[in-house]
Amino acid sequence: MFERKITEKLKGYVKTYRAVCIVGPRQSGKTTLVRHVFNDYQYCSLENPDTRKRAIDDPRSFLASFNKSAILDEIQYVPDLFSYLQEILDDSNDQRNFILTGSNSFQLNEKISQSLAGRVRIATLLPLLNSELPEKMRTKDLDQLLYSGSYPRIYDKGLNPTEWYADYYNTYVQKDVRTLLNVSNLNLFDTFTRLCAGRTGNLADYSSIASEAGITQPTAVRWASVLEASFLIFRLKPHFVNFNKRIIKSPKIYFFDTGLLCYLLHIRTKEHLFNHPLRGAIFENWVIAEIHKAYFAKGLQPPLYFWRDQHGHEVDLVVDNGSKLHPLEIKCSATFNSHWLKTLNWFNKLQNYNRSHIIYAGDENFTHGGSEVLSYNYDFCKLPWR
Question: What are the backbone angles phi and psi of residue 258, rounded to the nearest 5°?
């Protein structure tokens, strides 16, 4: 059992909301977490065919069968339950709380907005933050860290990452893709997903991806939305503040987990990763995903963007803190280079700001030239500009 940083937030949510919905990818630890935090609640999994049939056939009686607060796991399998939950949540005489979990944000958000808007608090649980791993499980081998990814089961059971991700990905394609898309040729979807992996950290050029995958551009856009709804990828948007300059307006593609990313890139060992041409992009992906996870663990939506103009100036990550854009550069080198400050100083001069961060592959944390330089092992939940 891993101590998840979102735990205290969940305990607080149920004091304000009678329904809390935890969303996130398959195997991110949702079931384990809610059964631990809400161990006095009744539990049922709607992934179980018999349970699911009862809920579909008679949803009102199904919900009435819980004589106290309950956990409804994988609720996306019976989306009609949301309408019946509305009746319960609107009944002031019914004091039951409901914890809902699901692994597809598109289906869940649609149903919640239709039936439970304002009645349910949504929380996101992604795979483990590096800082959520017990000290004995953490590695100082950067390539091992990137290759292993961050899904709890790999660490809990000591599993081979390549073998586990093969099973995970195949299950995802067979279950979620068939549910969400009418895909006649799953091999095409596999090709598309791997092409996205090869473009991690790059602009989402759906025309190019579609051409290589042998599909239409609208299909590529739709499939990317499914990958995003399943919490496999996220698209980092550009910030549109232009400082009187022309800026790029296409998002970048990143994966929430670098272990899965490595699997899709056919990286089968940490040694293979060390010599891989995309190692720097994979490290950048890992850092940006960690910062996303840190925001979600605090119950916040990540105000994260990148910035690039058409003259080649680019900042890897900017945090919109409401008044200024806090810039970060990400460098896959264990040796600090003062040249890294050049872009940060240039960007801050444009907005009359004097703070910045560099996250690099070294072990030491220090300040240089007004910029805080942080190791990749830093606990990103402690970042001061959150």
Answer: -80, -20
For 217-244, the pLDDT digits (tens) are 999 999 999 999 899 999 999 998 766 6
Which amino acid does the sequence have at 22?
I
Residue 146 and residue 257: Cα distance in Å, rounded?
9
pTM, rounded to two decimals: 0.95
CATH number for the domain whose boundaries are 7-124: 3.40.50.300
Place of tokens 């995309």: 278
Q: Evaluate whether 182 touches 168 at the Cβ level (below 8 Å).
A: no
User: Do the Cβ atoms of 318 and 248 come closer than 8 Å?
Assistant: no
Amino acid at 189: F
Return d(Cα 86, Cα 63) in angstroms, integer.
11
CA 260 to chain centre: 12
Q: Pairing between strand 371-375 and 366-368?
A: antiparallel
Q: Give me the phi and psi of 271, to 5 degrees please.
A: -65, -40
Average pLDDT score over residue span 201-213:
97
CB 214 within 8 A of CB 223: no
- Which spans in the chain are helix H? 7-16, 30-37, 49-57, 59-64, 81-89, 105-115, 142-148, 152-157, 161-172, 178-180, 186-198, 206-213, 217-229, 258-264, 270-274, 279-297, 341-351
Identity of the residue numbered 242: N
Which residues have a Cβ under 8 Å from the Cβ of 197 and sit 6 or more positions away?
Answer: 255, 261, 264, 265
DSSP single-letter state for residue 23: E
Domain ranges of the chain: 7-124, 130-382
CA 89, CA 204: separation in Å to the nearest integer? 41
Sequence-ordered list of residues with C-beta below 8 angstroms from that of 77, at least 6 positions apart, any chain: 46, 47, 52
Backbone angles phi, psi at 306, to 5 degrees: -120, 170
